[in-house]
Design a protein that fits this description.
Blueprint lengths: L2 H6 L7 E6 L5 E5 H17 L7 E5 L4 H13 L2 E5 L5 H11 L3 E5 L3 H6 L24 E4 L20 E6 L9 E5 L1 H5 L1 H8 L6 E4 L6 H13 L3 E5 L5 H10 L4 E4 L1 H10 L10 E5 L5 H11 L3 E7 L3 E5 L13 E2 L5 E4 L2 E4 L10 E2 L4 E3 L5 E3 L8 E10 L2 E7 L4 E3 L2 E3 L1 H9 L4 E11 L3 E10 L8 H14 L8 E4 L13 H5 L2
Parallel strand pairs: 1-10, 3-4, 3-5, 5-6, 9-10, 9-11, 11-12, 12-13, 26-27
Antiparallel strand pairs: 1-2, 7-8, 8-18, 13-14, 14-15, 16-17, 17-21, 19-20, 21-22, 23-24, 25-26
């Protein structure tokens, strides 16, 4: 199996594959023939830069065709791709590089300074346009885009890959420690057919727009993989979220299927004047529960019901509101066909053998790499039922999300581990201790709330200190993790063993 050979190369070459809307306002349509040719040439460039089958290629690119082309190039030659969101900061990048050990980083030039801050000396000198080289002696070579030379190398053929061979690395949010590296197999790509046909439902000739930024688990599978599996085209919009622009683009570009985070649906319903869209046929959401009033607002104006769904970084999509039944407000739908689930002590569990997109394992646990870079895998799928950590209730086969069983904070669809927020806060000279918990928010569902204990001699609590701590967290880690609420306390509530009682803080 090989996604590049079986899906990209065999598609009608004149069929629309990508619609690119760049930051500078330019618009370009990419045919499957262009994607096939460019990704094959990029695969040749990766090979020339030393990337081989099983090697890791890290990307730090926005929602641009070059990100998609790099992904396809890796699929073509059997490299393992690690897509990263551009919101990551130096500390986040250092962690990913240390854990995944990439052979090469492909990055947008606009991320060069952050790479340098992360200690990637290979980013110190940018090769001239068209020249494919990396400086000898650097820790990790970096290839910058846009670079015409990357798309001008002699193409290389696609290799035959086994379903169990590594394909993709994504990182979890992290609960009590650093984020974990999730390794997916080639089966993950073909397995997307299940949700592509049973939930996303993009159809041949249609334009599908998944707004998730590159680097997230949902972005790769629903930005282009799932649409292409069903013959649809994918739209890439490389710009910050603007509610009014979002509606304008939906209408102008004749989007047929829209996939957004629940927060985006909420913001559009509150801050814009919703209207009908002639070509819009379906809308889906995933990441957190959708408010019934938001569902009603979209239904009343557009006549279309938003169909919710659920999945995890480790599992891929697991549930969705069926196409042939009206969605139920607040429900994340039913298990996708064939997916076996059960609820034990209010926690959702699943049989990994029934999930075609289930991961191989975590790097450092079920997965290791030998000195020569060879993958050593003990497939997590064979180790019994998977506990999701999510509390769920069942009503006539429809599942309803009740909350996390751990301390992960779900805000605007982002899953944020409290450990990273707390680590960033205590690195500030004024902070002695900190705890991060979720606080309810009307638009985002939840936001990060930090409870801070100041050091002796630190400035007194003030709005200025709050702003300083917030900016500090934004510099230390991805900005979406910063605490929107900062409270101060003389001490944190703890157990007898010294663990912070986050449940008590959530109730205070």
């Amino acid at each position: 199996m090989n996604f590049a050979a079986e899906i990209v190369d065999t598609a009608p070459p004149d069929r629309l594959a990508l619609l690119e809307l760049a930051r500078d306002g330019t618009r370009r349509e990419w045919s499957f023939g262009e994607v096939a040719q460019s990704s094959a040439a990029l695969a040749g460039s990766l090979h020339a830069l030393g990337v081989r089958r099983g090697d890791v290629v890290m990307t730090l690119i926005g929602n641009r065709p070059e990100w998609v082309l790099t992904m396809i190039a890796c699929f073509r030659i059997g490299a393992v791709v690690l897509p990263c969101t551009e919101q990551l900061r130096a500390k986040d990048l250092r962690l990913r590089i240390a854990v995944a050990r990439p052979t090469l980083i492909v990055a947008d030039r606009r991320n060069r300074e952050e790479l340098l801050a992360a200690g990637v000396s290979g980013a110190a000198e940018v090769p001239p346009a068209g020249e494919l080289r990396s400086d000898a002696g650097t820790d990790v070579p970096v290839a910058f885009i846009p670079d015409p030379g990357l798309l001008a190398a002699p193409p290389v053929p696609a290799v035959a890959l086994g379903a169990q061979e590594p394909c993709l690395i994504t990182f979890t949010s992290g609960t009590a420690g650093e984020p974990k590296a999730v390794l997916h197999a080639q089966r993950y790509l073909a397995g997307q057919r299940l949700q592509a046909s049973g939930w996303l439902d993009a159809r041949p000739g249609e334009l599908c727009w998944c707004t998730a930024s590159s680097g997230w688990s949902k972005s790769a599978r629903n930005v282009f993989i799932a649409p292409w599996l069903t013959g649809a085209a994918a739209m890439l919009h490389d710009a910050r979220f603007d509610p009014h622009e979002r509606l304008e683009l939906l209408a102008r570009e004749r989007v047929a299927v829209l996939c957004m985070a629940p927060t985006e649906y909420r913001v559009l319903a509150k801050r814009t004047q919703l209207r009908t869209f002639k070509h819009l046929r379906g809308m889906v959401a995933a990441g957190e529960a959708l408010n019934p009033e938001v569902l009603r607002a979209w239904q009343e104006v557009t006549g279309i019901s938003i169909r919710d769904g659920y999945g995890q970084t480790e599992t891929g999509q697991l549930t969705g509101a069926p196409l042939d039944e009206p969605p139920r407000p607040g429900s994340m739908g039913r298990p996708l066909p064939g997916v076996q689930m059960r609820i034990e002590h209010d926690e959702l569990q699943l049989d990994p053998r029934s999930v075609p997109t289930f991961f191989l394992g975590y790097l450092g646990e079920q997965v290791a790499r030998g000195a020569g870079g060879a993958w050593e895998v003990s497939d997590r799928r064979e180790q019994g039922w998977w506990a999701t950590g999510d509390r769920v209730r069942d009503e006539d086969g429809w599942l309803y999300f009740e909350g996390r069983g751990d301390d992960v904070i779900v805000s605007a669809g982002y899953r944020i581990g409290p450990f990273e927020v707390e680590s960033a806060l205590v690195s500030h000279p004024a902070v002695a201790e900190a705890a991060a918990v979720a606080a309810p928010d009307e638009e985002r569902g939840s936001v990060v709330r930090a409870v801070v204990v100041l050091r002796d001699g630190a400035p007194d609590p003030s709005p200025q200190l709050v702003a300083e701590l917030q900016e500090h967290v934004k510099r230390e880690t991805a900005p979406y993790k910063y605490p929107r609420i900062v409270d101060f306390a003389a001490e944190l509530p703890k157990t007898a063993s010294g663990k912070v009682r986050r449940a008590q803080l959530r109730g205070s």
